[in-house]
Write a structure and sequence with these properties.
13 strands, 6-stranded mixed barrel, RNA Polymerase Alpha Subunit, Chain A, domain 2, 223 residues, 2 domains, 4-stranded mixed β-sheet, alpha+beta, Ribosomal Protein L25, Chain P
Length: 223
């Protein structure tokens, strides 16, 4: 995996005062994890954005804290953005223990082309964009590839069980759950015929009602 490093400083400003930090180009963060105390930190906004873009929430980051000799290994567990300007507002950093299993969501990356889609016989539907996995921090992967070349015909699917996943990674999802599938772009002739019959019946019904109404009126005149 690509090595990603990030610089941070201890933070003394808390509460509503963090607005001043943001105006000065900092992103407030919290470092937490098993067996460690929660530590407020601050990170330069540009560096935080770059690290988040490269690491996402499934890639280890070597976090260097000012005044400390050794970096700690962290995962981005959560982050908040301004809903209007999309500026990064806060980072939650989880300090991992390298000998203990972690759970992360790994992105699914579609590769190749589906022959059925290329021929115009089907459209591609992606049912999942991420997959939750469990493994040691040293075994983390950036993404899981989904080979679309397997989808040669309409109404085919690739399930979780079909994915090529290393043996040292445990997937926390139903093996039979679809990841991507092909939906046909045409309607079978039998279904078309049924639809035509249904339309004919619907069109005939008003005429039938009108005819029965006229017959009833004629009967009233005769009586």
């Amino acid at each position: 995996m690509e090595k990603i490093e990030l610089q941070a400083e201890p933070r003394t400003v808390i509460g509503k005062q963090v607005r001043r930090l943001r105006r000065e180009g900092w992103v407030p963060a919290i470092l937490y994890g098993p067996g460690v105390e929660n530590r407020p930190l601050q990170i330069r906004a540009r560096e935080a954005e770059e690290a988040l873009e490269r690491a996402g929430t499934s890639h280890l980051i070597s976090l260097h804290i000012a005044g400390e000799k050794k970096p700690v290994q962290v995962l981005v567990r959560d982050y908040q953005r301004d809903v209007i300007h999309r500026n990064l507002l806060h980072l939650d950093l989880y300090q991992v223990q390298m000998t203990k299993v972690v759970t992360v969501d790994v992105p699914l990356v579609l590769v190749g082309e589906s022959p059925a889609v290329e021929r115009g016989e089907a459209v591609l539907i992606q049912a999942r964009e991420t997959l939750e996995i469990e493994c040691l921090p040293t075994d983390l992967i950036d993404a899981i590839e989904v080979d679309l070349a397997q989808l040669t015909e309409p109404e085919q699917q690739i399930t979780v069980a079909d994915l090529a996943i290393p043996a040292n990674i445990r997937v926390l999802a139903d093996p039979d759950e679809p990841v991507v599938l092909t939906s046909p772009t045409w309607v079978p002739e039998e279904e078309e015929a049924e639809e035509e019959v249904a339309v004919e019946v619907e069109e005939a019904e008003p005429e039938l009602v009108r005819k029965r109404k006229e017959e009833a009126e004629e009967e009233e005149k005769e009586t």
